[in-house]
Amino acid sequence: MTTRRTRPAPRPPEGTPPRAELARQARAVLADAVRIAHWAAGTPGPGTAAPLAAHALERAATALELSPAQVRAGWDRARLAGLVELHGDTARPGWRLRAWDRDDSAVLRGWVALFDAWSLVHAAPEGIEAGAVAEAVEAVPQVLSLLQLSAGPVTVPALLDLLGQRVAELQEERCEVPLGPGRTAPAASAAPAETAADQAATAGPARSADLNALLLDWALEGLAAVGALTLGKGHATLTPLGNWAVWVKLEQICVAAQSPAGNIEQSAADMLLGCARLTPGPARDEYRAWLAARTVGSAVAELLAVARGEDALLRGLAFEALRVVGGPAEPEVRAVLAEPSLRPYALLWLAEYEGNDPDDAQDVLSREEATWLWVDTAAAVADHGETGLLVRHLDSAVQGTVPALLDEVRAVGHPRTVQVLVALAAAHPDPALAKAVRRAAFQVHTGGA
Questions:
Q1: Which residues contact 42 (CB under 8 A, 6 or more apart)?
Q2: Which of 118, 357, 389, 408 has the fewest CB within 10 Å, making it most exposed?
Q3: Can you give the pLDDT at residue 183?
């Protein structure tokens, strides 16, 4: 047995409130969103998109004693924080809403999701080119890092200088040369009149500084709107929530940089293949590092896309990685229960997530689902494993006897049944059993009974 040195659990910055207090602050920021989410979840057809349909908006405003603008803002926040899920014309409570009063971690994850979406909460000023807005959003993490490292108020001029530097770096990385004095853009016939923001975006360094100032004001107001910072006269300060969130993001980057097997920049499929030969502990470290370098939503979507592929080994490993994601993956995992190829994996994942012992989780599978999973696992072994492992896999079948297993395997309809049975027949040392397995494979191939 070998011991493996692990990175000690990081401590948040000195002065950071306990998680319970941070969760209390997050609940306060999202109080209206939670009220609206509860109302929407208990009301038929509250609307399918933001803003709410007019009739639903009025009903919500009346029921909750809020203004229509407050209802619209709270609805947007509820969706962005994962408090509600839309299914057609019906809003259902998200997993975070169900856990809101008892799970501080769920509350903090919900607030961080809102924090990540600050640019959607607070609309960008009108008339600014989308590319300029995107550059500002991409530069904001640098601004937040300065605020976090300063551990106190930072003047707006200092933040503006940093934003301008970061935007210039992004433009240089994209090989974009801003127009300077004496340089003009090609004339366009019948061009619409330029807005002040358009002129600021194209009229050279002096006007670019004006545009950056406008975008910085927008970003600071957006971050203040989600409770990440407070604005004073000429300065900005991170709130305890904002300070903690930026620290968490920086820690995730540190974790990502420590991936021992170097799979962070790989696609989900390549990352999972790179983990296939690792033991469970190091594999989970790799999953965590890969996940830390991505947003939860995109990572879960990529893992499920891999699970839908033809490689059964990757299907099983994708759900192992989803176990590391935990609660935030629950809605997406629950949504694939209707897909036959993913249903057994999803059922086991949900059973373990809900607290069942992994050894007892198999009880949630029907006989047919357990048989389908046996074939899928056998396909993974046949494609990537050793001959002896495929033979030993027989012992894990729920049927108890080989004839009963073959009967149910023939009926389950797995697309890899024939290949699995042929591989098992070739690997098994018992000639009589191998012959029976080959006969079953032939019957499946020809469609016989």
A1: none
A2: 357
A3: 39
Query: Which pLDDT does position 86 carry in this prediction?
Result: 65
- Average pLDDT per 10 consecutive residues for the chain, totaling 449 residues: 42 80 93 86 49 68 80 84 71 78 86 86 83 86 88 90 88 60 39 42 54 91 92 92 86 56 77 86 85 85 93 93 89 92 93 76 85 90 77 78 83 83 83 84 70
As a whole number of angstroms, the distance between CA 205 and CA 156 comes to: 19
Tally Cβ neighbours within 10 Å of residue 24. Answer: 13
What is the per-residue pLDDT for 194?
A: 43
d(CA 125, CA 410): 63
pLDDT of residue 447: 64
Rounded to whole angstroms, the Cα distance separating 14 from 57 reads 44
pLDDT score, position 403: 82
**Do strands 84-87 and 229-232 pair parallel, antiparallel, or not at all (unpaired)?**
unpaired
In this structure, the number of other CB atoms found within 10 A of the CB of residue 250 comes to 16
**Length of the chain in terms of residues written:** 449
- The answer to whether 162 and 241 are in contact (CB under 8 A) is no
Q: Is the separation of the CB atoms in 136 and 218 below 8 Å?
A: yes
Q: Give the side-chain half-sphere CA count within 13 A for 241.
A: 29
Amino acid at 65: E
Do 40 and 78 contact (CB within 8 A), yes or no? yes
The 8-class DSSP code of residue 52 comes to P
Burial class (CB in 10 A: 0-12, 13-18, 19+), 266: middle
CA distance 61 to 78: 15
Helices (H) and strands (E) counted in the chain, each on its own, are 23, 5
Q: Tokens 């619409």 map to which residue? A: 192
Neighbour-count burial of 348, counting CB atoms closer than 10 A to its CB (0-12 exposed, 13-18 middle, 19+ buried): buried
CA distances to 336, 357, 377, 448 from 342, in Å = 6, 20, 12, 27
CB 81 within 8 A of CB 111: yes
Beta bridge partners of 235: 155, 232
Strand partners, 85: 92
At residue 175, the pLDDT reads 63
What's the half-sphere exposure (Cβ side, CA atoms, 13 Å) at 85? Answer: 14
